[in-house]
Amino acid sequence: MNSKLMAAAIVAAAALAAPAAQAQSFINVLTGGTSGVYYPLGVAIGKIFGDKIPNVKTQVQATKASVENLILLQQGRGEIAFTLGDSLKAAWEGDEEAGFKSKLDKLRTIGAIYPNYIQIVATADSGIKTLADLKGKSLSVGAPKSGTELNSRAILAAAGMTYKDIGKVEYLPFAESVDLMKNRQLNATLQSAGLGVASLKDLSTSADITVVSVPKEIVDKIGPPFVSVTIPANTYTGQDKDVPTAAVINYLVTSSAVSDDLAYQMTKLIFESLPELANSHSAGKEIKLETAATGSPVPLHPGAIRYYKEKGLIK
What we know:
Blueprint: H1 2-21, E1 25-30, H2 38-52, E2 56-61, H3 66-74, E3 80-84, H4 85-93, E4 107-123, E5 138-140, H5 147-158, E6 168-170, H6 174-182, E7 188-193, H7 198-206, E8 209-212, H8 216-222, E9 226-231, E10 243-255, H9 260-271, H10 274-280, H11 302-310
Parallel strand pairs: 1-2, 1-3, 5-6, 5-7
Antiparallel strand pairs: 3-10, 4-7, 4-8, 4-10, 9-10
Helix pairs in contact: 2-10, 6-7, 9-11
């Protein structure tokens, strides 16, 4: 009887173990609006994970971007997310004014990716050529409490302005902002995104535009994580000169609830699939493994650390 009982126990244990071994993991990729840069890159990442991680189902979720993404990660409603560096810092510190009621302590970094360029674009007939010219005009600053909107506040403050100086402030995602500009219902939009963002490409082919400069002295007033960069000439139709502006580094972030093994696989696949990411959007060309493990205000996930140690980026 003992041998029969033991055999039965072994069969039962094997039956219980089998589903666990084949259990399907779920990865929800948190991005941004569909007309921005996060979304196409997120779609590419979701496909890479789905194709190359065994027993994984992926979903790509369009969101209001940085702030919402970080809150969703903290709540366990996503496994990997895009975010701006300043939003990530605010979330880690629990900056209520930035939209975080408490410190988001479950956040962990996968890696630094590409810089977000602060791109202020006005219709040519608005007469807006400088930051000071925004006074009394209408400006879309991004969805409320989004990373873009936080960037808008910072840029205007450094230029000695607040929303009270703007004639009318619209809190709209990229595509909606452009639609209003095409219909002459909005003078300008501030969009924090990778170069060549679809919404501004669309606008520049439909209307004459002015890309407004953010001078280095303004960027220096804000300080880190903002840096001075240049929007190269001909990034958009009709933009025939280089334009100085500010940039903030983007990060891919996960949570402490994600296993070390899954975080390792996600990190490895992202940085070993850079050609695919570059094909999904030009911003993907700016993602470099060499700088991936640097600069984050939030600790790296142990799974990401394992990969970076393998590549010699962390000792």
